[in-house]
Amino acid sequence: MLFYRQASLDRISKLAHVGPADLQRYRRELKESGLPDTLLQRGAGIAFARELPQGALLYLLVRAARPERVIETGVRPGYSTTWILAALDANGAGELVSLGPGPTAHRAAAIQNVSVGQFVPPGLRTRWTLALGNTEERLREILASTRRVDLFFYDNGPDVGRARFELRAAWDALSEQGILLAHRVDATPAWGDFCRLQGLPPQILDPGPPPLGALGLRSRY
């Protein structure tokens, strides 16, 4: 069973501009799906598949916001990737580009020893592009497309310089209704500093642990 915090659900409603009834429908849909079991079968720990809510929160946000272009950085086994792709599949639209592999420092040994994208089932890979070469230059290439980014997920480790670069670059590439996400925002001052540059206190989608930050482009206005 996934334990959602009501404040996190309320934040998704505001970011995606959907009502509680829609979120309830998406939660019921997810509960009836076999996604947690699929993650377990592909090597994910039971806590990540059945107890911790953040993967499911990603699913709900993608279902609600219906992004066309999603980018995540720091992918390794593909835990977050799988939840995002499942939501895009349920939407029947959208694509995900994942920049990887991500760093292994401070990860559990079970995560270090899996292959890149191991958790992602074949049936969800049609909307997925894995871009190897986890460098700033590679990210610049991905963001250089004329297509704007509807959802960007920073999950690329605690290096403060890298985090600041990615958050700024992604913010500049967002569409008018774009959303910026950042994982482990307690590991670096980059997220708090970035939010304050927008005239806002640090924006948290879910307190975790680890905390997950979220900021919509329209939050500035």
Describe, in plain words, how this protein is organized in 3D.
The protein has a seven-stranded mixed beta sheet with strand order 3-2-1-4-5-7-6, with helices on both faces. Helix content is 43%, strand content 18%. The protein has a single domain, classed as Vaccinia Virus protein VP39 (Rossmann fold), CATH 3.40.50.150. The longest helix has 14 residues, at 160-173. It is built from ten helices and seven strands. The chain has 221 residues and is α/β, with parallel strands linked by helices.
Instruction: Give the quaternary arrangement of the chains.
Output: single chain
How many structural domains does the protein architecture include? Answer: 1
Task: List the secondary-structure elements in sequence, H or E.
Answer: HHHHHEHEHEHEHEHEE
- The Rg value, from CA coordinates, equals 16 Å
**Which CATH-level-2 architecture?**
3-Layer(aba) Sandwich
Q: What is the number of helical segments per DSSP (H or I, 4+ residues)?
A: 10
Count of individual beta strands: 7
Percent strand equals: 15-25%
